[in-house]
TrEMBL record:
Biological process, per Gene Ontology: thiamine biosynthetic process; thiamine diphosphate biosynthetic process
Assigned protein family: Belongs to the thiamine-monophosphate kinase family.
Domain PurM-like C-terminal, first and last residues per copy: 156-306
EC number in record: 2.7.4.16
InterPro entries listed in its UniProt record: PurM-like_C_dom (IPR010918), PurM-like_C_sf (IPR036676), PurM-like_N (IPR016188), PurM-like_N_sf (IPR036921), ThiL-like (IPR006283)
Pfam families: AIRS, AIRS_C
Annotated positions binding Mg(2+) 1: 52-53, 128
Transmembrane segments: none
Amino acids binding Mg(2+) 4: 36, 51, 81
Organism whose genome encodes this protein: Caballeronia temeraria
Catalytic activity: thiamine phosphate + ATP = thiamine diphosphate + ADP
PANTHER family: THIAMINE-MONOPHOSPHATE KINASE
Name the UniProt record assigns to this protein: Thiamine-monophosphate kinase
Function: Catalyzes the ATP-dependent phosphorylation of thiamine-monophosphate (TMP) to form thiamine-pyrophosphate (TPP), the active form of vitamin B1.
Amino acid sequence: MLSEFSLIDRFFARRATAPSPRHDDEAARPLGIGDDCALIAPPIGHQLAISTDMLVEGRHFFPDVDPYALGHKALAVNLSDIAAMGAAPHAFTLALALPRADEAWLQAFSDGLFALAERHDCALIGGDTTSGPLNICITVFGDVPQGAALRRDAARPGDDIWVSGTLGDARAGLGAIRGEWRAPEGCDWRRALERPEPRVALGIALRGVAHAALDISDGLAGDLMHILKRSGVRAAVDADAVPCSDAVRALPEAARRQCTLAGGDDYELCFTAPVEARAALATIATNVKVPLTRIGTIEPSGAPGIAWRDASGAPLSLTLQGFDHFHAD
Ligand code: ADP
Ligand code: MG
């Protein structure tokens, strides 16, 4: 049986790269795993961007989930928050409660975790390990030039509203698992659900171009409302312009709208930008290889809320609920 410290060493500490220095100051040298605290500092002229996300068995993932995918997703959802602020990820901590020290499980989990961490040059700098019901909590640290973060309160009247990638595949898969509809054909929903790709390069490219931004984790309708409330503005959104895969498009209309507008687990970015930024955004989409779709506008006036329209511009009355842990069915 593995001890706590041999487990940490073998699956996490030994595989962790040291955090890279952020500036030349010797005294500010970063420190990773092995002491009571890690030490990090952002580059001069930058702010630290910090986010925590917890994944709980039975709530965020099924007990039989592939541990490699779980390692990926636990970090991906955190990197997605860093991306939404326009920050560059740098380091993370990992707090882990494990029911048992299953070596094969830990190997696959740490493989999935480190594969994504290495792609984003994000160093594991510490954590905590305990026995208990499976629970994974990651805190990620990123850098963003002072004042350049993409915040939720920065949408302005007249802005276009954009989303990256496609929405709804993960929710379509969940609905198929739950028997709400037949699995959409040709849809790699398991990949969407288990292996979301955080839009880090896009978030960085949107600095100085986008006004407000967030990542869509609980469904477009609910998440866009966070921007609208924080910015004190109203939106008009074309529900049929919201981008989705061909497989989701082929679902019955009500199911399609549920998936694309209120699905959740999308981890795409939703952002607002002035009309003059359209050409720059076309270039950014090409450079970062992520499609960007304009879905609506921020209205000149009105209380925070979303006026939904269909492709012909006719008003739609939709009652959509984003995901809420304390009001879930
Ligand atoms: P302390 O008792 O001082 O909180 P621990 O004994 O829990 O420290 O951990 C020893 C070292 O191992 C610390 O540097 C801690 O950050 C690191 N650590 C513990 N668990 C993990 C983990 N799951 N991943 C990465 N580092 C970890
Ligand atoms: Mg200590």
